Amino acid sequence: MKTIPFRFSFLLALSALALSACRDVTTQVNPSGIAASSFYKNGADADVAINACYDAFQNPERYVLWGDGRSDLFAVTDRSSVTDQQLVNGNLNATNGFAGWGEFFEAINRTNSVLKNVPNIADPGFTARKERILGEAYFLRAMAYFYLVRTFDNVPLILEPYESLSQDFFPKQATPEQVYAQVEADLKAAETRLTDRP
To answer: Does an H or E element contain 151, and which?
Structure first.
């Protein structure tokens, strides 16, 4: 009979020790991660960042299907998959593999990071290139939101990069009018910065 209280006491003490030894997971720093505060230091860092924005747009199938694929330029045939048929007919649902918007919000987050951090780079030889990179980021964000609003109507309008776990990961959806207004504002901001065009 004495072994039961001893075992219980031992397990209780072991549990208390284990729980008191734990660190808060949300305060741990990733030793191999790169924070924005230590990354955006010069023009080369900005070039890498804008290239990462373009990288998020490398799934060309989505852009064709979400753009021209939904117009009368494409036709559904007997060789089309069900997901293709749903997309062309405008019947997207949650089970359709093309219905995800994750890639677009990944691109938007990257462009938001560029737009927030590149203006703070104090590299004297980088001024002209800085404006071009900002223009490219504004254009890419506008393009991502243009695809999103045409496909999903109400989408979250996120204009700041995610840098902390305390930020709201479930923002409210904006109306299509608000999203189109932001697309127009971003395109105007891009136009003033992208001056070396034909």
So the answer is: helix 127-152
